[in-house]
Amino acid sequence: MPAHPIIRLKPREGRRALAGAPWIFSNEIVMDARTKALAPGTLVNVLPERGEPLGTGYFNPKSLIAVRLLDSVPDAEIGDAFFASHFARALARRAAFFSEHFYRLVHAEGDGLPGLTIDRFDDLCVVQITTAGMEALSRPILAALNEVVAPKHVILRNDTPSRALEGLEPYVRAARGEMPARLAVAENGARYFADPSGGQKTGWYYDQRDNRAFIAKLAPGRTVLDCYCYTGGFAILGAKFGAPEVVGVDSSVPALALAQEAAASNGIAPRCKFVKAEVFEELERLAAAGETFDIVIADPPPFVKSRKDLEAGARAYRKLARLAASVTAANGYLLLASCSHNMPRERFEQECAIGLARAGRRGAMIREAGAGPDHPIHPMLPETAYLKTLLYAVD
Ligand code: SAH
Q1: Ligand 1 mean position to 194 CA, how many Å?
Q2: What CATH number corresponds to the domain at position 30?
Q3: Which of 124, 157, 176 is the last residue of a domain?
Q4: DSSP class of residue 5?
Q5: pLDDT computed for residue 383 by the predictor
Q6: Torsion sign across C-alpha atoms 350, 363, 234, 117
Q7: Local structure of residue 143 (DSSP, 8 states)
Q8: In terms of Cα–Cα distance, which of 235, 154, 239, 240 is closest to 189?
Q9: Which residue ranges have their beta carbon within 6 Å of ligand 1?
Q10: 1 falls in which pLDDT band (50, 70, 90)?
Q11: Which of 52, 67, 164, 239 could form a disulfide bond with 268, CB atoms 3.0-4.6 angstroms apart?
Q12: The CATH number of the domain where 283 resides is what?
């Protein structure tokens, strides 16, 4: 039986954790010399000032979120069996929705595993570890993944910038099998390509799957402009489901090359054009030229990276909504998305509404959505509902 060191909450602190959230902030705990000296990633038991223990978690004295809880019992053994049972539960939750093995298998806190993300591409898994606590548990994570999923290839994509805050080095390597330069993704009946080692995040954004499918329903007979198209998630599906003309815009040349390959592989290349450009500039150019599209999509990178960027980010979302609305055809559709954790949904909706009005357009929001069921939200952590996707029918 392990005996983890004890972390104590200050009097009357840790209200969120006591209510069921898995996070304990550094200002909520007694940070004495003994606590400060614990190595980043140490497994700990958390005790409130009085009452029952909060359970087992991992600690990092350097992190603002000092403890992330893993188990509601103290002295829990966090090993192969712990991860195997979490992976089996995550797998069962995906099996209800996906007949093919292309999905986010583990979504950090949403699957009870803070600091760990795993995207599955059939027989290849891309594992992303973002905290010192999870890094220290790499061995049982990989052992349990082999036991429960048995993928041929496992890639550790441990190069997210947030790792530096945890004192972790960036690295990318194959933990099992090889590291393919690109892999095929099957989604919504289309075939795409992703680069698991050099692409953004794990190489593919599964979070927009349902929103892409929704756009596909509108595609027959409608032209599409996909701003921030990356490897073609929305654009390819639009063309595949009957859009006569699709233009994808992105600043990344490697992403656009994969989108172009996907267009060829789906037999729709003649109806697709991929353009390397800065989106704001391209939208201004298109608007000045009087060009419009029946469906306009804008799914940008996060404009609000931290709380202090909120106002600047909000202005950028507003401007993007205005420019995107200005190239949306009469009786068209406009999809606006934000993946910023720090941008609350209500504020995003407000900025988009103002942007639309400033473009002199009226419309109605016909869909308000987020990520799909392979991105579960922790009910006590609204931050984990990071994706906001709004669809307007524009007059
Ligand atoms: N919609 C995509 C995901 C978009 S991710 C999908 O469904 O998969 C954000 C994309 O924005 C990235 O591909 C990145 O290369 C691109 N990007 C970031 N800043 C940009 C800019 N200023 N202009 C154009 N593209 C940009």
Answers
A1: 14
A2: 2.30.130.10
A3: 176
A4: P
A5: 84
A6: positive
A7: H
A8: 240
A9: 200, 205, 208, 228-230, 233-234, 250-252, 255, 278-279, 299-301
A10: low
A11: 239
A12: 3.40.50.150
Indicate the residue among 176, 191, 212 that finishes a domain. 176
pLDDT digits (tens, 9 = 90+) for 30-50: 999 999 999 999 999 999 988
pTM: 0.97
- Strands 42-47, 171-176: parallel, antiparallel or unpaired by DSSP? unpaired
Give the residue numbers spanning the domain of 313: 183-394
Q: How far is the CA of 212 from the centre of ligand 1 (A)?
A: 15
**Catalytic sites, residue numbers:** 339
Residues 383 and 251 placed together within one structural domain of the fold: yes
Domain CATH number, residue 90:
3.30.750.80
DSSP alpha helix (H) spans, 199-344: 209-218, 233-240, 253-265, 279-288, 310-326
d(CA 192, CA 239): 13
Average pLDDT along the chain: 97
55 band by pLDDT with thresholds 50, 70 and 90:
very high
How crowded is residue 275: how many other Cβ atoms within 10 Å of its Cβ?
Answer: 12
Rg (CA), the chain: 22
* Whether residues 158 and 216 fall in one domain: no
Residue 207, amino acid: D
Cα distance between residue 292 and residue 329, in whole Å: 5
Q: Are residues 372 and 252 part of one domain?
A: yes
User: Contact, 86 vs 162, CB < 8 A?
Assistant: no
On whether both 171 and 188 belong to a single domain, the answer is no
- Give the distance (Å) from ligand 1 centre to CA of residue 298: 9
User: Which residue in 43, 40, 51, 44 sits closest to 12, CA to CA?
Assistant: 51
Of 275, 297, 283, residue with least CA distance to 212: 297
